Amino acid sequence: MSMPDTTTENKGVLAQITDEQKFKYLKLILIASFITRFVYVFYNTEYKNYLLSDMRGYWDRANGTYNGDIFSMYQWTSWATFFHMYLIFIFKILAFLNMSHQRLEVILFLNICYSVLSVYFVFLVANRLLKDNLITLVVTLVYAFTYPLIYYNSLVLSENLSIPLLIISTYILFAYHESRAIMFINGLLLGLAIGFRPALGLLGLPYFIYLLHAGGRSTKALIRGLLFTAGVFSVIFLVILENNYISHGELKSLAGNSGINFFIAQCKPSVVKSLYKGIHIHIASPIFVGSGEMGEFTTDHPIHDQKYFFNLGMECIKKNPWVLVTNLKYYKGMFFGPLFPSISSAIGFDSLIKLSNWLIFLISTGAGLMYFLIKKKIVESKEIIFLSSIPLVLIATMYFFSIEQRYFFPALFYVYMMLAFIILNRQKIKEYIASYVKIIVVICLICLLFQ
Fold it and tell me: What's the CA gap between 25 and 42, in Å, rounded?
């Protein structure tokens, strides 16, 4: 593994924080992260009132299936089903423990635990790759207290599971890529993350490419990559089988909303209203609510009729090919929202979300300097290239299937790591910084012109 040489440049920093001190600070960060999340969720939000929109959909579906309503169309037609299967699993455990009256509180407490666990694995990855105690702790600290990730712990949403699983699988990829058995298990972990958030599906490609090159190309590397892929598809295949069963063959994918997401991204309706077999379902993208170019779109096709919605999306592109360019302006929503869901009753939400939006924007734009590190071969680590590929894949996915702020949250850790490498190598790319800033300013001005 070829890592950047930062020893000389950061000699003074390393002398200030020893390994023993580093782990003491880590414990403090983890404890503070847990306490902050616990206090914020249970004492600074009206979490019992947050079961609305998507959260209500997941909660009602879980309760419906738990109470025997397995096959009705509402149970599977739109959102990915795997998350409410997880909720049902928790419901059953709580019923056994006679704690069913505390379902919501337990789910949110688990959200907090998963989130703190992800902070620990952020540290493990940073510690393994950065080789700098101070920067490792800064990355861990910034991630631990990124406001939207704390706020999301109060919501019954699948990001609370998929993001920790993604980060854990990244660490396992780096630490144990030579083990076939562990790579199969790691494939299962990424498969679970994809099951919860199907939009993460294309992330399997960077994993596979990394495994092919880690330790040099060889038959053994190919076998490890194939075993990892087998793990991913094992989970995906089982979820699809279950979806096919409960839908009586109507749903043959992880979720029924990829087609409608494509349609919304290309045609920009303010809201899509579906009435099919007596079931009303409304879906909208936060970016287009109240301002969509198409206005309200009503149909008698079910939300899961993906072919129908894909065709509608393609018709919009054929009528106006320029939309493939103007779509780029909506990337501002990736940083500045509106965030779904925006619940102002959460204490500090309005001010903290604005602050975090700018923080994430500045870090993300700064992380773009990674291009020069890789192009000039200042760093040649396969791990760094892998980290850089995750945000790019997610950004490309959003272009075709709706741009939302929360869809970028899985990329935050990887962006933070990219900026950390840039800081460690800042002297080696200082000649490019001024030009890069000019490019960013020009891009921002172009976006303003498209307003």
Answer: 26
| Sequence-ordered list of residues with C-beta below 8 angstroms from that of 334, at least 6 positions apart, any chain | 395, 398, 403, 404, 405, 407, 408
Assess contact for 163 and 157: CB atoms under 8 A.
no
- Degrees (nearest 5) of the Cα angle 210, 252, 265? 70
CA distance 188 to 174: 16
Cα 88 from Cα 170, distance rounded (Å): 27
Give how far Cα 334 sits from Cα of 54, 342, 356, 416, Å: 19, 14, 12, 16
Q: Looking at the whole model, is its pTM more than 0.85?
A: yes
Q: Judging by beta carbons within 10 Å of its beta carbon (0-12, 13-18, 19+), is residue 78 exposed, middle or buried? A: buried
**Across-strand partners of 330?**
none
* H/E element, 212: helix 204-213
| Domain extents in the chain | 11-246+337-449, 258-303+305-325
Tell me the C-alpha to C-alpha distance, in Å, between residue 93 and each of 66, 70, 103, 107, 215: 12, 19, 10, 12, 43
pLDDT tens-place string over residues 344-356: 999 999 999 999 9
- Identity of the amino acid at 147: Y
Helix residue spans in 132-179 (DSSP H): 133-144, 147-151, 159-176
Interval 394-426: pLDDT, tens? 999 999 988 899 999 999 999 999 999 999 988
